[in-house]
Amino acid sequence: MTINTDRIRPDEGRFAFVGGTYVESTGDAVVQRRSPVDGRELPGIRSCTPGDVDKAVQAARRAFEAKDWRGKTADEKKKILFRFTDLLQKHSAELALRDVLSMGKPIRDCLNNDIPLAIQCIRWYAEAMDKMYDACAPPHPGAIATITREPIGVVAGITPWNFPMENVAWKIGPALAAGNSLILKPAEQATFSALFLGKLAQEAGIPDGVLNILPGRGDVTGKALALHPDVDGVFFTGSTATGKDILTYAGRSNMKRVAIESGGKSAFLILKDCRHLDEAAQALAKNIFFNQGQICSAPSRLIVESSVQQEVLEKLLRLIPAYQPSNPLEEATTSGAMVDHPHLEGVLGYISAGRKEGGRLLVGGDRVEPVKGGAYMTPAIFTGVKNDMRIAREEIFGPVLSVLTVKDEQGAVETSNASPFGLAAAVWCDDINRAHRVARALRAGTIHINCYGEDDITAPFGGFKQSGNGHKEKSLDALDAYSEKKTTWLKLRED
User: Fold this and answer.
1) Residue 288 burial by CB count (10 A; 0-12/13-18/19+): exposed, middle or buried?
2) Cβ-Cβ contacts under 8 Å for 141 (sequence gap 6 or more)
């Protein structure tokens, strides 16, 4: 495949997509970035102002009140969303290139993972629309109560940069399937693929104002959305710190619905009776080093019983060469760049902190340049890690694995749960009773037994504790989050 790397116009970052057309942002602040692939200057992104946000909210509200979208039949909406996904497929190379240049993901991952999963997500919710039924309460003497589902209204979707197209689809799919008008605020590190969706929405026939796209900084554009009194809900995926801010903004404004899926520090438990250590090591390496470790559910803590630790480490070290970074624009590349140079510096700062706190850097953690000017580092493994170290407690969001040694099952569970996060976890153990006992004891939203990274649009995804506030992405549960439920009582007269 020949890849043209000059297809992002210099002026694209000046625009937002509002009310069915591209309009210039009125803001003066411009987000300037270098591509993590090779350091080239990317087009600046003009941050949408509170005034721009207000115009988008008005457009979304007009479309909602006019019932331009929610008034259509499920079959009509389904046909439009299917046309939209057909266009995503048609323009997949264009979308993939934008994400590679923006955040350094390998082109093969964009084409074979992110975009196909985004298409699957939106199609799945389109198919679900005419298969969701309202309900009737149990019989009540002299009355009938119906429970009906209605859209929330105008909702904002604020998405992260690590899986740009997939995370955008997780907002578009359920928000539009539920009948809402959506204002999308993509991460400033991965804006250009999201902005491209505006023209595809128009071509597909999504009514003006139903899908709006506002580029900009989270602390400007995202904050304005969360504070806006006519936004009925904010659906956010990103850092725990920003999630807390959004909860505060919602309380200060109109108590809008807030749904948060945030960070993680997921535990990967290997117990002494696991006989499939090769498989366990392969699953661990794949999921902590994939996407350069920039995954909210990455198993960044290996919690291993002491009797098998050395064997596990030897197997991990043999796998490290497969995860060395190289040029993301080459089709054979499996590990690319970090999202940008400042983030790389932050991850390298954790490498330094881990050493200072007494951890042993077993391998990696070096800045490298397989492409001159890019933001690359080698995957790292720390041993001798204690649970009070920063590298064990804080989300690094990079290819850094911390190894914590425990004596027994109880120590493994206690160490795993001694974290402010609870997004995912795994237990590797050949005793199925023990495995289930440990799985029940782990405090996390997704538990894997003798596997990791198993995922599907049909299953809910979300975390416990500071990894989220109970909202689940994906599955039919997401439609509940994007809907209101109304109870209507009808009193029966006796003639």
Assistant:
1) buried
2) none
Per the residue annotation, which of 48, 274, 296, 429 is the catalytic one? 296
Q: Which domains does the chain have, with CATH numbers?
A: 12-262+468-486 (3.40.605.10), 267-457 (3.40.309.10)
To which residue do tokens 């992002």 refer?
8
> In this structure, are residues 283 and 452 in contact, taking their beta carbons and an 8 Å threshold?
yes
Catalytic residue flag (residue 261): yes
Whole-angstrom Cα distance, residue 307 to residue 325?
32
The chain-wide mean pLDDT, for the chain, equals 96
pLDDT at 1: 41
> Is 395 a residue of the active site?
no
pLDDT per residue as tens digits for the range 453-493:
998 999 999 999 999 986 789 999 999 999 999 999 999 88
Q: Is 248 strand, coil or helix?
A: helix
- pLDDT, tens digit, 9 for 90 and up, residues 141-159: 889 999 999 999 999 999 9
Catalytic residue, from 261, 395, 409, 473: name it: 261
